[in-house]
Amino acid sequence: MKFLVVYYSRSGATKKVARTIAGQLDCDIAGIVSKKKFAGPFGFIIAGFNAARKRCTPIEKLAQEPSAYDLVVIGTPVWAATMAAPVRTFLDTYRKDIKKAAFFLTKGGQKNTGTFADMEGVCGKNPKATLELRTGHVKKAQVFADEAVDEINRFTARLKK
Predict the structure, then answer these.
(1) Owning domain of residue 110
(2) How far is CA 50 from the centre of its chain?
(3) From the DSSP assignment, how many helices (H) and strands (E) are in the chain?
(4) The domain spanning residue 46 has which CATH number?
(5) How far is residue 119's CA from residue 102's CA, in Å, rounded to a whole number?
(6) Cβ-based neighbour number of residue 120 at 10 Å
């Protein structure tokens, strides 16, 4: 099976998870590049506002073509209890090109109340597997917390089946 890991990361936590998953799957990886920047405190506020309003934001075209892959693993940080706006744009733009999907997310302390359902709704695909990781288990140390390592291992094992 040919995999592609696609992610958006504002702070680096989702990128770190995406790289780990891609390494375990020995597959291609692509970062979603937003044409709108969300840096700094003001960017953080605008990012949350766009996510809460379920707005898309312009993104750069991917170098990889999702239709060339059997399964696309899509990662997002949770913004305002849903996916990041650049991920929404990616799913909306490429949904017809995605054969099968899996989703992962990084979140702060908040409970995930429907990010995966929202991703599934925009993508139109039932995910083969999902993974939720707390940001604190990802970026507070140079290595992942043991809990995060175990969850990533279980997630990639499900994808390989």
Answers:
(1) 3-160
(2) 17
(3) 6, 6
(4) 3.40.50.360
(5) 10
(6) 17
**Residue 134's pLDDT band (boundaries 50, 70, 90)?**
confident
Q: Quick count: other Cβ atoms within 10 Å of Cβ 123?
A: 21
Q: Give the position of tokens 């917390």.
A: 145
| DSSP annotation string for 23-73 | HHHT-EEEE--BSS---HHHHHHHHHHHHHTT----BPPPSS-GGG-SEEE
> Each residue of 26-51: b (16+ CB within 10 Å) or e?
ebbbbbbebeeebeeeeeeebbbebb
pLDDT digits (tens, 9 = 90+) for 14-47: 999 999 999 999 999 999 998 877 777 766 667 6
Take residue 29 and report the two structure tokens written for it: 């990886």
pLDDT of residue 140: 53
Q: How many domains does the chain contain in total? A: 1
Single-letter code of the amino acid located at 16: K
User: Which structure tokens are listed for 104?
Assistant: 């992962």
